[in-house]
Fold PIH1 domain-containing protein 1.
Amino acid sequence: FSILSTEQKHYLFYPTLQTMGKVQSENPPSKVISPQPGMCVKTSSVSDKKKVFLSICQSQAVPPPPHLSQEALVDLLESEDPTSYRVPMSLGEPHTEVDNSSQGCTVYDVVINDEFFQKCQKDTLFQQFLIAVSLEGLENKYSLELSRDIKVLKNRKFMGSIAEQNIRTKSKPIIQEIDSNMCGPLLTYASAAHCSFLPEFSLLVEPPSGNAEHLIAEILLPGVISARSLVLDLGEDRLVLVAQPSLFHLDIFFPLLFNQENSVAQFNTNTQTLTVTMPVVFS
């Protein structure tokens, strides 16, 4: 395994991974939303210079990103890894429309939280940031290359029509309890663990070279004796773990997208370690 990111702890890794079955239903919870108009952004595809429009819409159904002040946003943009701050958004399928010149164009509907949209409308820096992450999100999802020479259309809130979108609601994977006799250890701490509201964890990718097939989160939870006290939520690139009552809380984003339905969580009661194995989604 190779390390994607980790706290400054000392670990010993063992390259063993047990085969784990599905624990999610085939049909994850979802709901249909009707996005409201927001703003329209004009750009073009780099390869063929054809017109592309972004209808950036808003909905209460999309969760807001973590609070971020303008000062914090400036620091983020100047940091080495501005992608560490994620904006939840729903990216719709491309659809063909006709622009004001009666020419065909491609339109993508991007849906974000309505309160965050209003914040972006009041602050130019946040608006520019929103447009940038929307372009990047579409490029990653649809293997595009879009021009950064953009124009926000003042008198148009969307292009063509806004389609309903089907978004996933939160899904909670079942956490299986195991003991050390069922599988070999994946992680051993060389330093003594200590209780903290933020648990010690490591993120691994398997295999260590070539295309990643699985993301593996190893989370040490000293003091937790049963999986029944754990609440685990998975998004397409996010893991949120709460050990009740208010013992630990972990909220992390991953550099890769993964398949929520086929993700598996196991809690080893002997080592008090939660292992979450997440199949990587290839774009």
